[in-house]
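hey m, so remember when u said the tokens were messed up on ur end? i reran from scratch. heres the input so u can diff it against urs
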Amino acid sequence: MVVRNPNGTSPATLNRADLITMRTNLTNLHTAIQGQINSVELAAADLKTMKEFLHLRGGQFNAKVRAVLGGTSYDTALPELPTPTDGMGVFVPPLDDILTLWTKINAAVGLPGFTAPLLLLGGYTLAEYTTALANLKLQFELVAKEQLGVTLKIGDRNGLQDVIYPVLKAYRQTVPVNFAANSPLVSSLPRLTPEPGSTPDAVLANGAWNAPTTQAKLSWSEPTSPDVVQVEVRWSPGPTYDASQEVVLANLAPTDPREHSTTQGLLAIGDVSNFKIYVLTSSGHERGSNTVKITRTT
């Protein structure tokens, strides 16, 4: 059996193999989204390590200049260091200032009591700092690229779902005109929407940035509907929650602890992420909680 292609005329019809290919591609896209989220987390972990290292070296530089060049213009020009959790726009400029100052200090002559080059603990050099700072900027760019990759893959997923849905409708329309009404192939047609029935009550969700763990902590009330079989933590990229863009971060049983911690979308101070908690029933009905907007503060 074939069905008319509802998405165009090339090809004019679709068969079972075509649907299997679409399903496989959709499964791969779901997997790719989760993999891309993991890539963001890995890149962010490396960025965190690099930021902490350069923050330490920045502090050593300021201390060294104050010790050997106190009272000079180099001392008064020292930048105020950012915090390791600041974003690129706040974190990088002071480190650029250090690079400029360090270069000028090494090129200066006739400074009383000082002989160039200036070295930090362990003989750490300007050349090493220059390389580390360049790598840090590249890592910031990599994290941004990986974050964009999540949004792009979600778009690919949504686009394929938009193609598949009318094909499923075409299948449901085609089977009844090819088989008798009492045929098992007709009576067992899968539904595209849940059977009429009760939608579960929404849970009440809460969340806040947990400074000690440097994660967002979500919690929610106990599901009250008796037929809830699954709880999902979902996240949507962007400044507001968009259900068409949401991604499942965790699947939980109703009896599991009602809390979840994550850094999704919260890599730097000031970042904002939106979350919802969904409850799902055995009949396929679901309902989302209120939106929980969390801002990273430390």
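this time it looks ok to me. The chain has a mean pLDDT of 95. if urs says something different then somethings off w ur setup not the seq
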